[in-house]
Amino acid sequence: MKAKVFCLVFLFSFALNSFLFSQDTNGRLLTQSELEEVYHKALKNTDVIAFMETLKEQGYIHEPENSIAVIRNSDGAIFINLAFNKGNDRLTSHIIYRNIPDRGEKVSFWEGIIKEEGDVLTLTEYEISNGQIGRDIELMSKITAGHCILASCGGVLVGCIFSNCAYLKCAAVGCVGGLVTCLLLWAFGGF
Amino acid sequence: MVNILSINCKLKGTKKLILVTLLAFLLGILFYYLGGIELAFIFVLSLIVASGISLIIKSKKKKYQDLY
Fold it and tell me: Cβ separation of A170 and B57 shorter than 8 Å?
């Protein structure tokens, strides 16, 4: 009985930890040389130039010294927060430039918050709508539909061990369910 | 496959639970290294759903056997 409780608690905590970790985006600050290299690249991006022009027209001044950049641990994606300030209105408008390996560059106009907790940095992006913080932006995932099918089917194959002597039926139904869910997620832009 | 299925039929109770937990842990780590925490999360989620469905099937089967 004790072993059963232990196993159930273990599985539950594993799932809970996975979920909680998936909510955070951990990374580290770029070193000065890394920052300079990526910064120059970002400033050459046509979308960044267009955004900078718009902000400058609105009276914002670019402050490179306040800019901050992080590199995400999970996939090596680089996020640069290009700081623009207007008078006393400090650090209110930023351009987020992302460079994600295999996915290329993406530029957006977001409010970006980079929290530092010990050695861990977390980056949270919020959409700005009419000057207010809107919905939380989910950062791009690097997993594909194939990864999703593989992981869900793997989970089903292990989970079906409980079904006494009906393993194949359970696995087949579960894998088809996982396949459909993953394809739906992929079709609706889940990843 | 036949051998795996016969092991599945023979294993019962705590032994089965320990086997599932160990497999889940090892595969969870493997998926984490393959595709990060999101992939590990998908794996664990489908494992829990499949386990739940399996247990429901098992209990229904037992009820049916008890009736006859």
Answer: yes
Residues of A in Cβ contact (< 8 Å) with B27: 154-155, 158
Total Cβ atoms within 10 A of residue A30: 19
pTM value surpassing 0.95: no
Q: Strands A89-100 and A104-108: what pairing?
A: antiparallel
Asked if residue A107 lies in contact with residue A96, where contact means CB atoms within 8 angstroms, the answer is yes
pLDDT tens profile A154-191: 888 888 887 777 788 888 888 888 888 888 877 776 66
The C-alpha atoms of residue A143 and residue A145 are separated, in whole angstroms, by 7
- A5 CB-near residues (< 8 Å, 6+ apart): none
pLDDT digits (tens, 9 = 90+) for B9-52: 666 777 777 877 788 888 888 887 777 777 788 888 888 888 88
Cα–Cα distance for residue pair A141/A74, rounded to 1 Å: 9
Residue pair A170/B50 in contact by the 8 Å Cβ criterion: yes
| Distance in angstroms (rounded) separating the CA atoms of residues B8 and B10 | 6
On whether the CB atoms of residues A75 and B36 are closer than 8 A, the answer is yes
Q: Which of A168, A143, A17, A37 is nearest to B29 (CA)?
A: A17
Q: Tell whether A11 lies on the interface with B, counting CB pairs under 8 A.
A: yes
- How many angstroms separate the CA atoms of B13 and A111, rounded? 53
pLDDT band for position A109 (50/70/90)? low
